[in-house]
Write a structure and sequence with these properties.
CATH topology: Rossmann fold
Strand order of the largest sheet: 3-2-1-4-5-6-7
Number of helices: 8
Order of helices and strands: EHEHEHEHEHEHHHE
Number of domains: 1
């Protein structure tokens, strides 16, 4: 699909977590096309380097920083690196997340529960803490989009800990929107449905018919491509969404309707 305008994020400095692949990589490329300078952040340098090189090869502005988003000092260093590189922070897309083996609540392993919470929930909290501080110090305003999930909007059989972490992200998003709206910082979240990423391919390996089954329940009758989710994040980060904050926006083809 084509990008939405070509100028949505002109002259903005945007930090993207989980930028090495999937929705994060699609978003990073889109944001650069839309005029942003993009700092790519994740744990895997080889993936980040590839995305950075793809962006710069087409004339975009991007750099990368490897970080463990469940570790406060690592997250803080990533934000500081962004400010050192570009002089400020205007926006952030907190997209990093993991999913582990599909299992019922009783069968889910404690270490898997802890890992999901540390990255998908605590990682967003740590990221927002450092990003909001940097925005206030360097730009005086800003916009954040957190990546939630359609699984956060209701019960999520087989992915209980994942859905609970994402529901926690929704609460953090709305709280931050209330607390920092007076300072000019907007905070929203997107809640993607089935999206053709490595994560959904893991589910396909367990249940080969999973995409077909979910699509049958989705009004648009298909999964999303990563760029379609990235488009929603780009718009929410842009000045076109200047009076929108505290929203959890489903990007799910109508699955949650």
């Amino acid at each position: 699909m084509e990008n939405i305008s070509g100028q949505l994020l002109m002259d903005k400095v945007v930090m993207v977590t989980g930028a090495g692949r999937g929705i994060g990589a699609a978003a990073a490329k889109l944001f650069a096309e839309e005029g942003a300078s993009v700092m790519l952040v994740s744990r895997t340098e080889s993936e980040l380097r590839t995305v950075r090189d793809e962006i710069t090869a087409t004339g975009g502005n991007a750099d990368y920083f490897t970080a463990d988003l469940s570790d406060a000092s690592s997250v803080e260093e990533a934000v500081k690196a962004t400010v050192r590189r570009y002089g400020r922070l205007n926006a952030a897309f907190n997209n990093a997340g993991i999913v582990v083996t599909v299992a019922s609540l009783v069968d889910e392993k404690e270490e898997d529960f802890d890992l999901i919470q540390s990255v998908n929930y605590k990682g967003v909290w740590l990221s927002m803490k450092a990003q909001i501080k940097a925005m206030l110090e360097t730009s005086g305003s800003g916009a954040i989009v957190n990546s939630s999930s359609v699984g956060s909007l209701k019960g999520n059989p087989g992915l209980g800990a994942y859905g609970a972490a994402k529901r926690g992200v929704n609460s953090l998003t709305q709280t931050a929107a209330i607390e920092y709206g007076p300072a000019g910082i907007r905070v929203n979240a997107i809640a993607p449905g089935t999206t053709m990423t490595d994560m959904i391919q893991q589910w396909v390996s367990i249940n080969p018919k999973i995409i077909e089954q979910i699509s049958a329940k989705t009004p648009l009758r298909r999964p999303a491509e990563p760029i379609e989710v990235a488009n929603a994040a780009a718009w929410l980060l842009s000045d076109q969404a200047s009076f929108i904050t505290g929203v959890i926006l489903p990007v799910d083809g109508g699955l949650s309707a």
